[in-house]
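lol forgot to send this yesterday, sorry. struct tokens for the thing we talked abt
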């Protein structure tokens, strides 16, 4: 056994003990040995590491699985050195074969000033990922949110093109060849802004115009020709009128970019889902197939399940959340261009749904959300097991009984008009906006 594999063994054994609570439970039960009736002794929790991890099950069917990571929380020295007892580091190492920085690679983290860069947290993530053989997603190069404080007073129509392309040249250039996929542009579509092309009225749009997207993708392609260049968005998962319309505009945007030869190679579907209300269905499958026809990969980039509107205790949350994971992954994973699933965090202890206090995160009973595969105590949630089972059946056409799924062969879907060959045609589904004028 090599030193590394011995370490790996020790680390995984420690992860098993800590992540499952098995170690603590064992110690406690051995102390009270005489009081325990073996006939009713609680069996140890199931193994969730090594061959039983999310990544082992995903790898077996050619999928990548992983999570958003807060590099500040990682015990890098321990993890790559003598070993770490830090449960967060252990969980990320044990479960993920792809990671993404939750915040550390956004402009606000990387750009302390208009002329400087701070790569410390991003570098830490790359070092950790490198030590554990994990791929890294880059998130993100161009977004309307989390811009640094200096941005508004500094960026002008005169310097914005240079500011954007220089940032991409430096950041994507630094990690060139080490990035699985870059979210080059994040959340560029917002129907509420009322533009015929569906584009969000973002600072980038205002400063540069709609061509900022092409500019960003071109700069990224030049800086890192190996990364899959991705367009990432949210609110495109459901078959509600609103999300159907947004999904249509995203598809039109992709077609416009594609028709102009812009190097978009993948779509990120954020997948911040709700435990209550309408669930994803046939519209999303159609979308995934449409982008497959354009040669694009699809990544589930930020999955979690929000229970802010769900009544009930922790167990009720767990059942509802796991069911959303089961249905959702059962819906999308049979599509062969879906290549990766990332959850937005690995543990409920650090989920943004528990740290951000907003009307759309806070539960009426004041209890914490349970949106991720590991809970606050690093115990596997039912969602963990739902994910693992979904991977096992991933490439089969196994469909939850209550989801109407189009035939495996791409073709007309009842209620959805067939896509035309016209790249600017609307994604012809009820609620789609009008065709935007050709650029
Ligand atoms: C979120 C982070 O999780 C939070 O910590 C931060 O305060 C705000 O951003 N869509 C995205 C992510 O693309 O970058 C967002 O991450 C969640 C929504």
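and heres what i got for the seq, position by position
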């Amino acid at each position: 056994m090599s030193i590394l594999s011995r370490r790996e063994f020790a680390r995984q054994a420690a992860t098993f003990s800590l992540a499952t609570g098995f170690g603590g439970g064992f110690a406690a039960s051995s102390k009270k040995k005489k009081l325990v009736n073996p006939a009713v002794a609680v069996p140890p929790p199931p193994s969730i590491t090594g061959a039983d991890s999310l990544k082992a099950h995903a790898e077996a069917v050619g999928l990548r699985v992983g999570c958003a990571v807060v590099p500040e929380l990682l015990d890098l020295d321990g993890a790559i050195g003598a070993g770490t007892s830090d449960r967060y580091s252990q969980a990320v190492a044990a479960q993920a074969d792809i990671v993404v920085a939750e915040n550390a690679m956004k402009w606000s983290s990387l750009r302390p000033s208009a002329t400087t860069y701070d790569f410390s947290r991003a570098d830490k993530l790359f070092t950790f990922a490198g030590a554990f053989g994990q791929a890294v997603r880059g998130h993100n190069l161009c977004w309307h949110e989390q811009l640094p404080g200096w941005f508004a007073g500094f960026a002008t129509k005169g310097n914005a093109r240079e500011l954007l392309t220089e940032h991409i040249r430096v950041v994507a250039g630094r990690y060139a060849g080490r990035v699985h996929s870059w979210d080059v542009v994040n959340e560029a579509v917002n129907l509420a802004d009322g533009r015929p092309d569906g584009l969000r009225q973002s600072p980038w749009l205002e400063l540069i115009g709609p061509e900022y997207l092409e500019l960003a993708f071109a700069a990224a392609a030049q800086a890192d020709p190996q990364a899959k260049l991705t367009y990432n968005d949210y609110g495109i998962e459901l078959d509600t009128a609103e999300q159907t319309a947004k999904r249509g505009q995203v598809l039109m945007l992709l077609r416009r970019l594609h028709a102009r030869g812009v190097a978009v190679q993948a779509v990120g579907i954020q997948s911040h889902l709700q435990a209550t209300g309408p669930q994803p269905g046939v519209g999303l499958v159609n979308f995934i197939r449409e982008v497959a026809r354009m040669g694009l990969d699809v990544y589930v980039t930020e999955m979690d399940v929000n229970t802010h509107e769900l009544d009930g205790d922790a167990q009720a949350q767990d059942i509802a959340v796991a069911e959303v994971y089961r249905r959702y992954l059962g819906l999308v994973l049979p599509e062969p261009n879906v290549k990766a699933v990332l959850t937005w965090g690995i543990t409920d202890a650090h989920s943004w749904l528990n740290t951000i206090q907003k009307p759309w995160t806070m539960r009426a009973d004041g209890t914490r959300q349970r949106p991720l595969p590991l809970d606050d105590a690093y115990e596997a949630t039912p969602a963990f097991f739902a994910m693992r089972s979904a991977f096992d059946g991933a490439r089969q056409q196994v469909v939850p009984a209550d989801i109407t799924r189009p035939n495996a062969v791409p073709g007309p879907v009842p209620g959805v008009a067939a896509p035309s060959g016209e790249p600017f045609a609307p994604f012809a589904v009820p609620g789609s906006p009008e065709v935007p004028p050709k650029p």
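The pocket of XIL is lined by residues 102-103, 186, 234, 270, 302, 352 (CB under 6 Å). anyway ping me if u want another try
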